[in-house]
Amino acid sequence: MANNIYKLAMIGIAGIILFGAYMAFAGYQTDIYPLDLSRGHLEGIGASSDPQTILGHLKAIQGYLPAEGNAVWIFPTETTNFARIQADLDVMIASVEKISTVPRDSSAFHTGMLDVKERAEIIQENIMDATPYMYVSGSNVLFSSIWVATIIAIFAILKRKKEQLKAYDVSEDV
User: Fold this and answer.
1) Residue 48: phi, psi to the nearest 5?
2) Mind listing the pLDDT tens digit for each residue in 31-70?
């Protein structure tokens, strides 16, 4: 009987660990990975001088970032406000569309490109500030709490069963 209980407990523990690994992977994929992709596109903006390439990067970033909300949900800041970041991206897209009509050898083109690249660096810093807080979203905290509580419950059940088996072994029936 004790052997079956421990086998079931080990299966439960393995299941909980696999569930936790899946939740960590899924949480990273939905919350963090889009921010990482956005940072990659922002670096692409810094490396490019072609307005059409930069425009493609900016539109991709808009698709990856949430349209609204704030990564910091306890004490939100304006630097981690996704609505403001999206508005900044809109301004950058308008700037790049204007820059694309200007001759490449003009000072207006170079000034506009410098402005876009500086804005890209600032947004990249804002996304870097927001990234750690995305790990601490409400759903991630809830699932992590459930995961830890379940592991503690399994170990508590195992301990109680072990004590019951010890008491049975000590009794006169054995």
Assistant:
1) -110, 155
2) 899 999 999 999 999 999 999 999 999 999 999 999 999 9
Domains of the chain, residue spans:
2-170
Q: Read off the pTM.
A: 0.79
The DSSP string of the chain is: -HHHHHHHHHHHHHHHHHHHHHHHHHHIIIIIHHHHHHHHHHHHHHH---HHHHHHHHHHHHHHS-SS-BS-SSS--GGGBHHHHHHHHHHHHHHHHHHTTS-TTSHHHHHHHHHHHHHHHHHHHHHHHHHHHHTT-HHHHHHHHHHHHHHHHHHHHHHHHHHHHHHHHHSTT-
Question: So what's the architecture of 2-170 in CATH?
Answer: Up-down Bundle (1.20)
